[in-house]
Design goal:
The chain is an alpha+beta fold. The protein has 16 helices and 13 strands. The chain starts with a strand and ends with a helix.
């Protein structure tokens, strides 16, 4: 033999899933020996059996990855012979579904390799050289294992690295040391390792949200002894942090709903001049101290939180096999029974019910004063719960549990803030402040004088239709003013732009207003 190879493996109880490995190459020749490259396998990883999910392909979880600290590649260069970082990224993962018809990736040459790995959804083999290796190459290819219980071939992926050994002088030895992490994709364990080995979690662009959420979930789950309870309390904490912002948005939304009448008048007045309309609307918002976009902030903030939670839960090995309530596995759908090959999942149904009830508590008003864009938006929002049902039905019960608790917390907050109303000062600004102020004073005086003058049921109904007080005498000028204001919403032009069903409903209400006006007008004529 011309070469002796010694392999030493070490592991202590404190190392967890980490195995220390050293390989020593010793020349037995009397002359120098050249060995170009040494190849080491990263192992293989296979698809974990999962229930059917049309939105989440299993092959996307199978990947070969690496972490390279070298300089970025030149723009437009991705060849295997160049040294550097592809796309300027330190970590790169090549998924099975990205390998094309050959089922392979070309070797990637790394200038400052820190580690390489092969992984599936919940487990990873991660090899890290103890000393920095230059000209390290990584490649991978698809493999298939024996058939599973259903007689189907299981998809998998394997990876390997190679590095140059160089020239061994007579009796010379060269040693290469590695550490191998072979275990679950546990963020807490991986974050203890050097050189950003936690990147194998593949949290994506929302890593800055996923990482603290993962840390918090593990702490809460340890505290309560259940990952299901950990998800519930984590959701509650996140919701409490966002509570002030959501409450402010709710108040702003209620103010906007109360101001739709005056806004409709502005649109009608300046419908021929969009620039003037925008100026007047901005002035109107400033006077009433409302922000038309304030109601969007909670939704915009929840989007990255939801996506961060999604990326964190989809590869959290801690949830694999964890039971909660009727769910046998929090990383899988909460199937209670199979019906003709279709899984009946209870939690997504409960989730959509909470979403529907949440929208019922705070519906959008579809009065005649609403713009067409607002009507379209309101119709789209009605279908939002069912869109979530289609999307989340096939995902893990952990993710659906998070969204369900989030809905319940939103319902609670809506009930607590439901009675928030406009202040008197803002209410006075909804129309002509001074003129309305004098009318209120006169109305209040009339109510004091005639507080005990009761009216019959029909008269009370007529007054309500026109927005008049239900006791005392009616002011003729106010009757005319309220009647004209009401009838503006039922002009022939507005009715022509409505759907047939809404037009019929609007015409019926218009006729009732006409009837109320005529009846109250006759009553005033008799009194005079």
């Amino acid at each position: 033999s011309n070469l002796r190879i010694d392999r030493i493996y070490e592991r202590s109880q404190d190392d967890g899933y980490v195995l220390k490995h050293r390989t020593v190459f010793t020349s037995l020749r009397d002359v120098p020996m050249a060995i170009e490259r040494i190849r080491m396998s990263l192992g293989s990883s296979f698809q974990i059996p999962r229930m059917y999910n049309p939105f989440d392909q299993a092959s996307t979880y199978l990947s070969v990855g690496y972490y390279n600290d070298g300089a970025p590649l030149a723009e437009g260069c991705s060849c295997a012979t160049c040294s550097g970082r592809i796309d300027g990224e330190r970590e790169e993962f090549f998924q099975l579904n990205e390998m094309g018809p050959t089922g392979k990736i070309e070797p990637r040459r790394l200038s400052k390799a820190k580690w390489a790995c092969v992984n599936n959804q919940f487990f990873v083999n991660l090899l890290r050289p103890e000393t920095e290796l230059s000209d390290l190459r990584v490649w991978g290819e698809s493999v298939q294992s024996n058939q599973n219980e259903q007689g189907e071939e299981v998809l998998g992926i394997s990876g390997a690295i190679s590095f140059p050994l160089g020239i061994l002088q007579p009796s010379e030895s060269k040693e290469f040391a590695f550490s191998l992490y072979a275990g679950p994709k546990d963020y807490v364990e991986l974050s203890k390792l050097s050189f950003e080995q936690k990147k194998v979690m593949q949290f994506g662009v929302f890593w800055w949200i996923s990482e603290p959420l993962s840390w918090s979930l593990n702490k809460l789950s340890s505290l309560f002894g259940s990952y299901g309870l950990g998800i519930i309390f984590l959701t509650i904490i996140v919701k409490l942090i966002l509570w002030p912002l959501t409450a402010q948005a709710t108040r702003s939304q209620k103010k906007m709903q109360a101001l739709q009448g005056p806004l409709a008048k502005l649109r009608e007045k300046h419908k021929g001049s969009p620039q003037k309309l925008n100026q007047e609307m901005m002035k109107f918002y400033k006077e009433h101290k409302v922000n038309p976009f304030a109601g969007c902030w909670p939704i915009l903030i929840q989007i990255p939180i939801f996506l961060g939670m999604f990326w964190m839960l989809r590869s959290a090995a801690e949830l694999y096999g964890q039971e909660f309530l009727w769910a046998n596995d929090l990383s899988e759908q909460d199937s209670v029974v199979m019906l003709q090959g279709f899984s009946l999942n209870v939690l997504p149904i409960f989730m959509v019910l909470t979403q529907w009830y949440q929208m019922r508590l705070n519906p959008m008003q579809l009065g005649p004063e609403m713009s067409e864009a607002q009507r379209i938006n309101a119709k789209m929002m009605r279908f939002m719960p069912f869109m979530f049902l289609v999307f989340l039905y096939f995902f893990s019960s952990a993710l659906v549990l998070y969204w369900t608790i989030q809905n319940i917390m939103t319902i609670l907050q809506t009930l607590l803030t439901k009675n928030v109303v406009l202040s008197d000062a803002n209410a006075d600004k909804e129309s002509k402040a001074r003129e309305k102020g004098f009318e209120r004073i006169r109305d209040n005086a009339d109510e004091v004088v005639s507080a005990n003058e009761e009216v019959d049921e029909d008269n009370r109904r007529y007054r309500n239709l026109l927005g008049l007080k239900v006791r005392g005498k009616i002011d003729a000028e106010k009757l005319e003013l309220r009647y004209k204001e009401r009838m503006k919403h039922y002009s022939p032009k507005r009715l022509a732009n409505m759907t047939e069903q809404k037009r019929i409903s609007a015409e019926e209400k218009r006729d009732k207003i006409n009837e109320a006006y005529e009846s109250l007008k006759k009553e005033l004529d008799k009194e005079s």
